[in-house]
Amino acid sequence: MEFSPFNPVVKLCLQGMSMEESNKPDEAIQLFTQAWNEAEDDHEKFLAAHYIARHQKTAGEKLEWLETALEYALKVNDDAVKTALPALYSNISQCYKDLGNPEKSQENADLALQLKNNPSDKGPFYHGTRADLKAGDLLTAGGSSNYKSEFIMNHIYFTALVNGAGLAAALAKGDGQERVYMVKPTGAFENDPNLTDKKFPGNPTRSYRSEAPLKVIGEATEWSRPGPEELQKFREKLENSKGDIIN
């Protein structure tokens, strides 16, 4: 399963989040409810239930929707969804605490702790760039950020989604050809904190970072290139972003 911002249910969730940012909670819950009603698979139902939960008025109602989200998340055998489980269990733990059930609260808190910061993703992994590389080359930290050129990055970033790497290649600075390389981490890696549990629960883009080099093991030739309009929207979004990079 590949996360896509162009999925109809994801689009509705994005619109709902935009209403939240505009302090329009009634419009937001309408959009999230529409997403729930239009969801066709377990992943889409998980996403919609997650957003509906945070608009509930009582701890009991919130718990009901969080456990619904958990039910569908556990049905999805996907690493992107697994990364959402720690926060989900943590939120469920808080609901049980608010409801005066310390035993269930601790049980879910323990589950959250067990799953946190332990990526289970086995790849394959990809890195998008405009550099001309060959098998055996090493990609290392210390380069300038593609999104904020004044930042020197302390990590090297990669993803398990080939099309996500393709988007990164298209957004990369320089005039070289867009390239997507298959890479192998040479050391420990973690979920990208700039994306994990931000707008979407977990790490839906399966984005990671490492202080250790990535070894190029080949080049991917089949990936979807974003169209000019889609690419321009992403560039405008990045230019207008006011968030800080966690480096």
Automatic annotation (TrEMBL):
Source domain of life: Bacteria
Domain Rifampin ADP-ribosyltransferase: 125-223
Molecular function as annotated in GO: methyltransferase activity
One Gene Ontology term from the biological process aspect of the record: methylation
Residues annotated as signal peptide: none
InterPro entries: Arr_sf, Rifampin_Arr, TPR-like_helical_dom_sf
Keyword entries, A-Z: Methyltransferase, Transferase
Coiled coil: none
Pfam families: Arr-ms (PF12120)
NCBIfam families on file: rifampin_ARR
Name recorded for this polypeptide: rRNA adenine methyltransferase
